[in-house]
Amino acid sequence: MTVLRALLVCLVTLLASYSTIPAAMADDLKDAINALAEGSLKDREAKVDALLETGDDTVVPVLTYLAEGDLYFRKSDKQVFLADKTGRTFSLTDPISGDVIPDISKRDIKKVRVNNNLRRQIRDGLSLFALNSRDSAKRLAAAETIYKAQDASALPAIEARLAKEQDAQVIAFLQEARAGLTLTSDAPEEAKLSAIEILRDKGGRQALSILNEAAETSEGAVKDAASRAIVAIERMLAIWNGVQNIWYGLSLGSVLLLASIGLAITFGVMGVINMAHGEMVMLGAYTTFAVQQAVQTAAPGLIDYSLLFAIPAAFLVAGAIGFVLERGIIRFLYGRPLETLLATWGVSLILQQAVRTIFGPTNQEVSNPGWMSGAVELAGLSLTWNRIWIFFFALAMFGLLFALLKRTPMGLQMRAVTQNRNMASSLGVKTPWVDAFTFALGSGIAGIAGVALSQIGNVSPNLGQSYIIDSFMVVVFGGVGNLWGTLIGALTLGVANKFLEPFAGAVLGKILVLVFIILFIQKRPRGLFALKGRAVE
Amino acid sequence: MEQTSPDTATGNPVALSIDGIDLHYGAAQALRNISLEVETARITCVLGRNGVGKTSMLRAIVGQHPVSKGKIILGGHDVTKAPPYARAGRGIAYVPQGREIFPQLTVRENLEVGYARLPRKQRFVEEEIFDLFPILKDMLSRRGGDLSGGQQQQLAIGRALVTRPNILVLDEPTEGIQPSIIKDIGRAITYLKEEKGIAILLVEQYLDFCRELADVVHIMDRGEIVHSGPAEDLDKEHVRNHLTV
Amino acid sequence: MISAFLFRGLAGRIAWVAAFIALLGILVPLSNLMLPSDHALYVPDYIVSLFGKYLTYALLAMALDLVWGYCGILSLGHGAFFALGGYAMGMYLMRQIGSRGVYGDPILPDFMVFLNWKELPWYWYGFDQFWFAAIMVLAIPGLLAFVFGWFAFRSRVTGVYLSIITQAMTYALLLAFFRNDMGFGGNNGLTDFKDILGYTLQNPATRAGLFAAAAFALSLALVISSAIVRSKFGKVLLATRDAESRARFLGYRVEHVKLFVFTLSAMMAGIAGALYVPLVGIINPGEFAPANSIEVVIWAAVGGRGTLIGPIIGAITVNLGKSWFTAQFPEYWLFVLGGLFVAVTVFMPKGMLGTLSSFSDKVKSLKPAPKPSQTEAGEMRKEGEAS
Amino acid sequence: EETIKVGVLHSLSGTMAISETTLKDAMLMLIEEQNEKGGLLGKKLEPVVVDPASDWPLFAEKARELIDVNDVSAVFGCWTSVSRKSVLPVFEELNSILFYPVQYEGEESQRNVFYTGAAPNQQAIPAVDYLMEQEGVERWVLAGTDYVYPRTTNKILEAYLKAKGVAAEDIMINYTPFGHSDWQTIVSDIKAFGEAGKKTAVVSTVNGDANVPFYKELANQGIKAEDIPVVAFSVGEEELAGLDTEPLVGHLAAWNYFQSVDSDANYEFIDAWHAFTKDENRVTNDPMEAHYIGFNMWVKAVEKAGSTDPDAVIDALPGISVPNLSGGYSAMMPNHHITKPVLIGEIQDDGQFDIVYETPGLVPGDAWSDYLPDSAKLISDWRAPLSCGNFNTETNECGGKGAE
Amino acid sequence: MIDSNTQVTSTLLYLDDVSVSFDGFKAINGLSLAIEPGEMRAIIGPNGAGKTTMMDIITGKTRPDTGDVLFEGQMDLTQHDETEIAQAGIGRKFQKPTVFESQTVRENLELALSGNRGVWASLFYRESEADAARIEEILQTVRLQQRANELASDLSHGQKQWLEIGMLLAQDPKLLLVDEPVAGMTDAETVETAKLLREISKTHSVIVVEHDMGFIRDLDVKVTVLAEGSVLAEGSLDHVSAHPDVIESYLGR
Ligand SMILES: Nc1ncnc2c1ncn2[C@@H]1O[C@H](COP(=O)(O)OP(=O)(O)OP(=O)(O)O)[C@@H](O)[C@H]1O
Ligand SMILES: Nc1ncnc2c1ncn2[C@@H]1O[C@H](COP(=O)(O)OP(=O)(O)OP(=O)(O)O)[C@@H](O)[C@H]1O
Ligand SMILES: [Mg+2]
Ligand SMILES: [Mg+2]
What we know:
Mean pLDDT of chain B: 88
Strand content of chain B: 25-35%
Main location (chain A): membrane
CATH superfamily of the domain at 14-99 and 165-243 in chain B: P-loop containing nucleotide triphosphate hydrolases
Helix content of chain E: 25-40%
Bound molecules: adenosine-5'-triphosphate, magnesium ion
Shape of chain B: globular
Oligomer: heteropentamer
CATH class of the domain at 14-99 and 165-243 in chain B: Alpha Beta
Structural class of chain E: alpha/beta
Order of helices and strands of chain E: EEEHEEHEHHHHEHEHEEHH
Transmembrane segments (chain A): 246-273, 280-299, 305-325, 388-405, 472-496, 502-521
Pfam family, one (chain A): BPD_transp_2
Structural class of chain B: alpha/beta
Largest interface: A-D, 66 and 57 residues
CATH topology of the domain at 14-99 and 165-243 in chain B: Rossmann fold
Number of strands of chain E: 10
GO molecular function, one term (chain A): transmembrane transporter activity
InterPro entries (chain A): ABC_transp_permease, ABC_UrtB_bac, BCAA_transport_permease
Radius of gyration of chain E: 18 Å
CATH topology of the largest domain in chain E: Rossmann fold
Low-confidence stretches of chain B: 1-8
Shape of chain E: globular
Strand order of the largest sheet of chain B: 6-7-8-3-9-10
Number of helices of chain E: 10
CATH architecture of the domain at 14-99 and 165-243 in chain B: 3-Layer(aba) Sandwich
Low-confidence stretches of chain E: 1-8
Order of helices and strands of chain B: EEEHEEHEHHHHEHEHEEH
């Protein structure tokens, strides 16, 4: 965003210094721009239209700034400027001359108000400008906007561009845009039929709605063709819908997995009924917040990568607290697993209130880095980046943990100690160290989960409470002490939830999942991946 | 191996000595002033009726239960207050009564837990162990808890041997084991004593087994050692009296 | 037979505690109603309703202890039975409002008018009668526990698996009762009660009566529970808790044993809920929240599990602490309460009661008094050990 | 020295602490300011703060404690409807005064309670009007958390929209559980619903914790305000503080106050707030303004009555008018609701709202909705001689619609 | 079903071609065995031969993959659960002593004492004099009178063994399954136990599993040798001990 704006400012300055605009026209433009300062929001729509109609490139930065709420006027003379906030003051750029006036106080200027209507109008209008941009990516974006806008007045621009466009993707979009417009116009039948074909191949909901309208308003061959295209598109949509649902389910499952994976250690392996698990997740999320703040002040350039620093930090913070907890409290409670519930519940209250006291009771803002924002459109699917990252992150964590537990001597000792502490000790295992390490590991992993979860939900003192029940559900459903169970359990519950949600609704869907868990446990009283045989008794 | 204790009458160094220990379970006293020495390359056997405190004594020695009085010296070091893993670090290995294998670990993993105090190079299971208990080799990937009672007992002994101890403490190791393997265990114990010079402390109920192996026997009754002497003493009437009901 | 059975429950200190609670049930209301408010022994209205609430919590905690402490069923869903009993009572109280609601509808409760319901749903029939509601207070939690337990125990669901499905049960009920479509007032629940059995709830005397009822219910439940755990059945319970499969090999129908206490305990919880609702004046789905059920477990653990009296002490102490701390240190009370829980676990492994009795044992053993007979010693030890 | 005690009944822990803690601070600030001005009736005010811990029955217990044990003259508190419902009988029985500062579903008017937050007609209806008229919205998604406030509001809105000629298939209603955190399906449904060719908007009564994940999902799935604007009734500055608002610019909220309101009273208030909290970044919000109004009304009423006696103050309150923060005056009406302007704001990238619409005059709060059949005929007037919260204008009787 | 009065055979317990496998490992392999009423049978065999598993099958703990197990000629044990089988009169002592640790020795015996196991019956149970006397007698037999009121968890390993034997006596079943009763006992106690079992077998059927050959000799009953899940040899102890396979796989040289 900022890069773009810097470019725009350069552009203005360039334009101004080598201005080829005749003086008279420049004056008109100036008036038209300054006119933005006055009148109601409704009046402003006409003024924006007028600016767009000039077709002059000078209006591009003006309107872009307006849409972003950065167009200001000087109170003294109602002159409109492009404003950039620099620290506590603003620097103003004259849209025509490109002159920069630094250090203007907020008091002296006022924002040119904008609303959604204006933004939409500007976006659609500027897309026609961008259609002639040299950057093919921009042209592509513009063509997409034009397709979405379905504005008949854009038709000449589309035709004009199509005549000289080279980029196949842009051509496709423009043709689709034209097809939509053709269909709703009074074009001849053949044109409409070929337009229907283009739209059918394009697919998607918007094509569907255009075709629906066409099918309603037309007759004969066009109506038939449109109806057939509708059926085809709907079938595709249904399929993609199913796939999308599976993805949503897996993605929800990966969140559940993340939330419960630390618990799979502290509870699943160690047998501590760890009610403070959620708070470890919360601490991870708050660490993310703190790291983000630190990076913001220390190295703003790295802000997009603050999450990468947050991961080890969260592990260390939550792990350290887990370590202290184990040494200070839990170790007195081995052999009395139920009592750990009481103690860790107390700890969870303390941690919640501590965070509330330190950071305040309200939500904290953890922003998505650029590489985790937005979505990719993949055929009929729309996959958001943060979910994709979280999904693979969860799997990676699982893999690491699995390897640690099953393939390393430390993992073996961890399991041995929890099964028979005395005997492990008599075999030379340093049980206090293993206990503390295991609990710290489980807590640290929970902390890492907090980093990921801060990307999709609240960062508040209550964060832990909202995950704790689900986490226990997952671990138990999968089978206590079985990591695979946790993995499969989390994904199963995620997918089940997402398949129930569309037709039962979110509330009933959740109830049904709970009922499903209850019934499932009747069938497999020791969870999905139950340990069988004598060994369990 | 450090052997700082003075040599004993038999000429072998003392690997382990306990000196006047008492042990309580809550208010109940289970051991009264027990003293005993275990020599290197000797088999020391402890006998006694049910509930006289044999297991309690072993638990005190390996550190699974604190003593209320007295001292435990291991290889010249006072380990009275040391945790079990520290004592294991000094070369003591324990085959407990009731097997105490790790039920959810496989046989292989059960054995590997014994690596904990070994240097990296020594982290393998010696073939001798599998020769002694071939069944373990067949069942490496079965879960310990699924084994039969006797198999578990074999595993418990095998696991103790994995740690390459210099003192081996066995609590009724023959319990639940088939006769042929009992004979093998007997041979193995003799082998460990003679070839490896390991000190062996054996608690047994099985008199014949004891008489065959032991160099020294101690007899316990009601938390006390009431008789100590060579294995031949077991044939004496008054000694045997301690073992009858 | 029944009286002989109950008589057995009155042995030892239980008798004293039960009598004490029952006495409170008489004295506190009397003092509240008869004494002038400046009298030294006067119990203010505020205290009466507050302690009335604690007594219902105590009953709930004791009911939980019966299944958890004695039978090893760690129910994380006992709040559900409490809430169901509460709802049954709430429905009765709702019907008693009659046309005094804000919309003045003689049949439909306000929230139904509000959401355009035209008719009373069938499951609300009968709740205008106290006897019917009273039966439902027992029957609904009892039936749910019976059906739930029937399946779970028959399938041999035990340990944490059982705990978690009880939690899933209460969680599912929470979500269900939140739904306005269920016809129980959604999130706001049932409120705005006017009177019970013709006595207006805004009158201190009515609340004093409710206090007495809570005290008597608790005292009676204590005697019944004590009689149960002292009978041979109580030993079977412990056997089931400690070695379920061994009990099976002895020929005990473990699932019936569990089902019996679970259902009984759910009914006690239901009664607690039913007494709670008129005392606090509201029942809403929040009572189903899993955290509430966990808190009940905490009360029992704080007081001392497997002692019946311990959970009563625990419930009252924790809630008294909560009431006091939230007013005294509104910003820091969670530290204090959390710290208390940690301290109890670490320093009082047997809960408050267990620690108290082992302390008093020590004091006793210092005196050169005649040693307690073998049986008594064993008895006491067993009680301590059970926690 | 004798003081006048004021109860503050807001959750400082549990799920609601997120919202309510700020209100406790605001009350402490208001009381401190009043004391600096010399207190009330020559006495100092003394706040009594308790923590009902987001536990509804505990609200009732604490209310009783405040009134009975601490002898407070008035209580400022509650946020959720259920907490208010829980304390109502207590205030009625012990005859005390509660000021309730949050927007709610209406359908209530009680003698001891003064509602300084918005009734549905002071928030929801103007917001929908705005979208319809200014943005040309034709298709509606009513998304809410499953509890009474959203249910009622949506019921009212549905009736209202249908009366305006919106077809049933152009209204989608969706409920989610409290604290719902996985919004993927619902957001993609909204997206699909909005791609059908007609201009679509979302009216969100999603509550509390669920908002952050909801908006994050909206942002990530690329739902732009220009395409599908979301107007919310429970999202204010405080809630936005937990969000990166950059991708959310243009989404809307309807309130009676925004921190960005351009008035001297507001600037003063904000400065005082920053000074009081010693934190330049603390935001102000609508319920804070409601407490500001309510507190000043109470002060004025006590002065007018010359005592803190509840009956006197209750009688004195209707008709009292005090400055609000948006530059006008708000008055307490006989139905114990107040008059307020309605503002629509668009979210800005700095976490503030830019006010894009303001009702021309003040809107009086309506205790009984005109769009619900059973309430339409009810009015509330606590002045003598009527003294009734649910007066039936058809039967001319107090006590609701009565037997039919 | 079959009328309970008409006995199909006189056999008390009849295992017919029973097999069970765990994850592909055949622990019991086509095992057939018949125990007559009043018979005592000793079972020996290598570790892992399937002796304990066989008991698991009889008592309903493990379901066989194939084969029938008939009790008193008509009750198919594979169709019943542990409780029903115990109530039908099969009692068991486990290889690893399992007692109710948090209850006293006496209570353990009280629980085991034969009688109605129903919920109501145990709620309203009052100890009769006969019951008390019986418990006293058993305490005497297992030599735990001194510790009657102590918690079972405080017993030593061997004492727990004794307690379990006591519980079995209290239960008074028709068929006793005794898994390694003398493990951990002194030689003298072993002799006592053999006597005790012989006494019991006068009125009950008994199956004893042991590795102690001296003890088996003392019992002086028919011996069945199990190996790899099926019967290897059967007959008197002298007969089977001479069997080369038994020597090879079990007794050793
Ligand atoms: N955990 C315990 N708590 C209380 N008392 C115990 C405990 N363990 C053992 N005892 C008691 O201490 C005494 C000694 O027990 P110990 O286990 O040492 O006997 P043992 O000689 O090994 O007997 P066995 O031959 O039966 O194994 C016994 O009387 C026993 O009852
Ligand atoms: N659940 C199981 N999973 C895998 N293998 C099992 C399982 N249960 C038993 N086995 C195996 O079945 C075989 C028979 O075991 P069983 O306990 O019946 O032997 P046993 O004859 O009683 O031996 P012992 O004399 O040592 O007690 C053993 O090899 C054991 O490892
Ligand atoms: Mg022993
Ligand atoms: Mg066996």
